[in-house]
């Protein structure tokens, strides 16, 4: 049986510029995904939308969507910390 799971993250940032910067920083990783995964991102004003689709015949492979989301959120947190450090200088 083929299983498809979709996860949509909508994140609101303080500015349109920050949102674009985060999207651009994440894009290379989002293009190089596993065979059964598709990641699409979109920026509208200061909202970053990320859609992750995973399709698999093995239900255990679906857990990769959570791992991928956790990794992306960790990258975003690191980027936000970097923006704060740059802003403070």
Q: What would a concise description of this structure say?
A:
This protein has 89 residues and is α+β, with helices and mostly antiparallel strands. It contains 2 helices and 3 strands. 11% of the residues are buried.
The strand count comes to 3
Structural domain tally: 1
The helix/strand class is alpha+beta
Q: What proportion of the residues form beta strands (DSSP E)? A: 25-35%
**CATH class membership:** Alpha Beta
State the strand order across the main sheet: 1-3-2
Topology (elements, then pairings):
Layout: E1 3-12, H1 16-31, E2 37-44, E3 47-56, H2 64-88
Antiparallel strand pairs: 1-3, 2-3
Helix pairs in contact: 1-2
Q: Care to describe what's here?
A:
- This protein is of the alpha+beta class and 89 residues long.
- The mean pLDDT is 86.
- It has one domain: TATA-Binding Protein.
- The protein is 46% helix and 31% strand.
- The radius of gyration is 14 Å and the shape is elongated.
- It contains 2 helices and 3 strands.
- The longest helix is centred in the C-terminal third of the chain and has 25 residues, at 64-88.
Notable characteristics:
elongated, alpha+beta, TATA-Binding Protein, 89 residues, 3-stranded antiparallel sheet, 46% helix
């Amino acid at each position: 049986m083929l299983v498809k799971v979709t996860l949509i993250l909508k994140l609101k940032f303080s500015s349109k510029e920050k949102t674009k910067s985060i999207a651009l920083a994440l894009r290379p990783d989002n293009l190089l995904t596993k065979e059964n995964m598709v990641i699409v991102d979109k920026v509208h004003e200061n909202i970053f939308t990320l859609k992750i689709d995973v399709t698999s015949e093995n239900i255990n492979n679906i857990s990769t969507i959570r791992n991928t989301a956790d990794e992306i959120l960790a990258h975003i947190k690191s980027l936000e910390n970097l923006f704060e450090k740059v802003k403070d200088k």
